[in-house]
Amino acid sequence: MGLQRSFSDITIINCALNLPLIVISIFANSLVLAAMWTAPSLRSPSTVFLCCLTVSDILVGFIAQPVYIATELTRAPFLYGAMFGLTTLACGVSVCTMAVISVDRYLALHYHMTYPHIMTAKRALYITLTVWLTGAFASCIKLWNTSFFFYVTAVGIGVCITISTFSYVKIFLIVRQHQLQIQAQHQAVQNLKTANRTLHLNKSAINTFIYFVFMILCYSPLFASMLILAIYQKHETEAWNFADTISFMNSCINPVLYCWRLKELRTAVLKVLRKMSCSHIGKS
């Protein structure tokens, strides 16, 4: 009886933690999406990936988490399939997009002269579509085989983390090399423009590295739980559900990091907030 009550308390606490995350995720990511939509200066192939990440984070808060809470509280069998499908789609697209962004930043640094020709808006859209189709396919595996679903989820998260880690190790080495070059370039006036571009790319790489660190912190518990459940599915307990909540938390953290690290985006978000405030005052 005591054990059952403990699990019930865990469920209530877990659901209570998700409620504020839902509000923050929807509101913050919607602001970021609106800012990117209204600010022409933010439109670029790299922004396509950022929009993809923002949309997936909105879906986490708007659809995946409410269904997750309903499933946890009701234990309705028909909700389980929807919960696994939606959470895998939204969170899967989010973590995959973070890996894509890390590769994109590596390409921007390594091929900084030819990058605009390598990563076009059309190619970015194709990559984004592939990410969403992959997420949709992964979300359907649970209907076929539960154990294989846990394996695929664990492997998918592991692959994304590995790709991001490799990309940021390469980025670190490039940034260190650029810092040495910048010192020499600043001595020549004719190379100042190249130095400024390199500084901008380095700053962009550092920004996305911060996103990567938080992705690791948020998705590592889910990776561990999926891997353990794939091997020892009989040991599943409600305590594992906190790993889901921690992964949901990443959808709230991302927009805060965007606005903190990207000045142009922060300015655009503030403009959207001012317009909302003026509109509200005008109506009242």
TrEMBL record:
Q: Which UniProt keywords apply?
A: Cell membrane, G-protein coupled receptor, Membrane, Receptor, Transducer, Transmembrane, Transmembrane helix
Entries under Gene3D superfamilies matching the protein: Rhodopsin 7-helix transmembrane proteins (1.20.1070.10)
Q: Which residues form the G-protein coupled receptors family 1 profile domain?
A: 28-258
Q: Which domain of life is it from?
A: Eukaryota
- Localization, UniProt: Cell membrane
Q: Which organism is it from?
A: Porites evermanni
Q: What is this protein called?
A: G-protein coupled receptors family 1 profile domain-containing protein
- Lineage of producing organism: Eukaryota, Metazoa, Cnidaria, Anthozoa, Hexacorallia
Pfam families according to UniProt = 7tm_1 (PF00001)
